[in-house]
Amino acid sequence: xxxxxxxxxxxxxxxxxxxxxxxxxxxxxxxxxxxxxxxxxxxxxxxxxxxxxxxxxxxxxxxxxxxxxxxxxxxxxxxxxxxxxxxxxxxxxxxxxxxxxxxxxxxxxxxxxxxxxxxxxxxxxxxxxxxxxxxxxxxxxxxxxxxxxxxxxxxxxxxxxxxxxxxxxxxxxxxxxxxxxxxxxxxxxxxxxxxxxxxxxx
Length: 202
Description:
By secondary structure, the chain is of the alpha/beta class. The protein has helices at 34-57, 76-83, 91-97, 119-126, 141-151, 168-181, and strands spanning 18-23, 62-67, 104-108, 130-136, 155-157, 163-164. It has one domain (18-191): Isochorismatase-like (Rossmann fold), CATH 3.40.50. 36% of the residues lie in helices and 14% in strands. The radius of gyration is 16 Å and the shape is globular.
């Protein structure tokens, strides 16, 4: 039996016990309630951008977990460019949170970032057991992803200022559910402690 190649099958170059997930932030917000959501999403994006930069300085890998907009031939980079157009209602948010070259991305067909995606495989290669979940919307895709993560025994941090829903009430209800039933830490991003993670590159 030949020795197992540790780099085979897409082994991720980063190693970190913690990973930051940005859920559905690459979004043209092309749906009826978008203007209502934008009211909360704009200030959230600024706080999430600062959290992302803190995470990267700490060596914490950043993973964009994004809807494929119902297009099974979606390309993530083309999605970014589409959402950056001036005609896109989400262009301000995408401009603040656009991916960098060393970020990861996973496209999802449904609400949960784990359903029919490579997310679990990626997290296994990264060695991550604690997840910081952020993004849009707190009461749908963040909630569904958090539930599936909890079922897989991940520890969860869901900063209350880095996720939004159509209303503050709906977002608060979702955070309360995740705090009570999924044991999530929902303290604001400014109070999250990010230990220095070991970072390895091939």
